[in-house]
Amino acid sequence: MDMVWNIFFMFGGVAAMMFGMKIMGAALEQVASGGMKKLLGKVTSNRFAGVGVGIAVTSIIQSSTATTVMLVGFVNIGLMTLVQATNVIMGANIGTTVTAHIVSLSGVGEIDIGAIAAMVGCVGVLMSMLIKNEKAINIGNILGGLGLLFVGLEFISTYAKEIMFIGGDKTQPQAWVQLIFQGDHNPLLLILIGIVLTALVHSSSTITSLMVVLASIGVLPFGNALFLALGSNIGTCVTSILSSAGTHVNAKRTAIVHLLFNTFGCLLFIVPLWILKGEVTAFFSSMSNDVGQQIAIFHTLFNILTTIILLPLAQYVVKLACVIIPEKQDVEDDKYKFAYIDTRMLETPPIAASNTKKEIIRMSEFARENINLSVEMLLNEKVDHSEKIKDNEDIINHLNKNIVGFLTKLMGKDLKEQDDKKIGSYYHVVSDIERVGDYAENIMEYAAKLRAEEMTISEEAKAELKTVTDKINKLYETVFCAFDDRNLSALPEVEEIEESIDQLSLELEHRHIERLKKGACTAQTGSVFLQTISNLERVGDHITNVAFSLKQYTR
Q: How many CB atoms within 10 Å of residue 540?
């Protein structure tokens, strides 16, 4: 049974290491969220800037897979071109090697860095538990995740030795270990193993880290690790390919570019490494005595050299991706799709929260257009916008349902306190916009009713309706500029416009009652006028709610 318990402990170590990486990456992302948004906003056609952004972002979130999945989402909604995403992907492959360097530190020097990291992790956990400050909690989670990573590594190292070596001195590998890890295997087989293992765990960082540990305890020779690392680079593409299912053509091409880049890199180096394996091993041995650190250095240099070679050829890689995934007509109408958000953005909650605001503003424009179209139907009997209004209302309802669904998923992520409040307020904002769309439908129905009965409202009433609508448009513009800029200083102006709409509505109701008394209009047209004024006044209330939602999260 000892062997069974040892296996359990070793896999527990793997779980602790992976969980520590996840916690540390999520906390680093929270701390650097503002910087990440700025970095991604600076991605231009400059290929070197794109590579730099890929390195920086992936170093923060500790996963090239997560970065590429996010890029698939950005390309899918048109926030980034395929060429820009290609440059970032190349940088992401370099950034993901940071984890292996961190892991390799545990076996370097006389000082037990793993033990120090474990103690630092304990301090981090205490910080996140005892200090009720968001920044301190995030820093504590970074330290706690780092500590858990090294504790996991220690478990893997300790129990792997128990499982894989014979005797108390732990220097003689088991026969099966020699056969599997230390044999003179065909490099193609090792590459295939690297692909399969990485595809299973969805993380090249995890597989490379395990390679570093196994090499450090004498199980995995450097010559075999070379080809496992090449395979892991290809295996990490599986997740991004799966995530591109159901996306636009260019998003699918982004995932294919990732696969092509990593495959070409493998093909470029497989033969030289195969032929010159002894020389390569000697070269990296001269850099460090620790095999684990040699693997980490190799993985970084390999990705840097691949990027240097393929970066000038990026446009050809993109063209090949376009040949593999040809252009075709999307079945679903684009107007029903998100323009700024994508479920793949959930991997980076701060960016997802920021882009949700843009999607809400887009939804508000459909509601605003419907208000103006419906009022125009009352003002001009010769126009009929009913089909357009119904189409817009379908889009509003579709966006309402799907934005709420996206917000619900986003609320389940690890958010900053301010982002948490912001997302909570967005539920109400989306509801207010949806109600604006409903009032536009009401006004359209009033216009249709008058036309069916061959009636029109008076010119005086039309002029009054136009005055109210102009104020609604002014309120709309002021509110959503403030909402977009998080500008609390605009709230007094919003309140002033909203109060003027309320006062004008009361005044127009009194005027219309006087017209009814004088017989200047019929009861039917009078009812439509009063109901329209009431609906517009409620529209003003809902738009004002949007502006005052800023108070929930803006300091």
A: 26
